Amino acid sequence: MSPLGYGSLTNTHPRVSPDPITDTSPPGGTILIMGLIDAIPSGRELLTAREGRWVLRRCARRGHVLVHLADPGLMQLTGPVVVVPGEAVLLRCLRCGMWTGPQEVGVGEVVGSSTAAAVVGDLPLPVRGGHGRRIGLLKLVALERFAKGLALISGALVAYQVASNRGSILAYVERLLVAFRPLGQELGVHLTGSPLVTRVEGWLGGTGDPVRLAGLAMLAYGVVQIVEGVGLWGGWRWAEYLAAVATSAFIPLEIYELVEKPTPLKAAALVVNIAIVVYLVYKGRLFGIRGGHEAFLHEVRDSTLPADLLRSLGRSADELTSTRIV
Questions:
Q1: Which is the most buried residue in 88, 252, 310, 323, by most CB within 10 A?
Q2: Long-range contacts of 229-236 (CB under 8 A, 24+ apart)
């Protein structure tokens, strides 16, 4: 039994020559070829229903990944299949296993060409299975980073406006205090002497430099958050390192704030950030954890459809040497 859940490929469909699969006797020849294509395992049998749907959605968004291979064995499983000589050619998507023409609208990338075929080492690594789920979780983290970045940048813009117009704002605050003084007296609250009002007057009554510095800090951190979000949404490796480092750097400050003034919101934020760092480092094998980057690439290669096809031919997935994840 092959790793795909099928018997030997010689038992599941007729063996064909290493040349592109052709049949020149329509219409029966086309039916024969389509039956041959249907008999080739798609590789989705190893995935759960949810993972299979994710793979199809990713191909719908990013396009199919097709290949013209120079490998005689894999050519029987990836094409090209010539349905109409000189016209219709089908290639197999390396992510979802579907067959389509290289000129179709839904194709995102074609590796190699009919005149310059690619070798096995040139094949990109279309993620599937657990790595597909991981990319989905990274997108959730990216959304959180986008939201936090936009909030910080908005806060920085507000801080700049406050620092630039602190005189008029301070005068407006003083008018409000005068207007609400009778209400404060009725409630027994001395508004002008409250810690909050004193702090606001201190910030607005100076040169405005503390407010500007706070705004610059928020702007810088907001930009970092946006960059993290873009990188994590795209599934880029460098963004995982950046997110792990940037998030870890603020955990001590969050712990200090939680100890000084504990609130459920601070506790929840701390738990979420720690969980994000642990997940990024452990699942992504960052900083040499669990074998580091080489072990991560080996795991990704081993989960791809080309690896399944190689194993079905009795070959090793170690023939895949590419580092490009798509």
A1: 310
A2: 229/142, 229/143, 229/144, 229/145, 229/146, 229/149, 230/142, 231/142, 232/138, 232/139, 232/141, 232/142, 232/145, 233/138, 233/139, 233/142, 235/127, 235/135, 235/138, 235/325
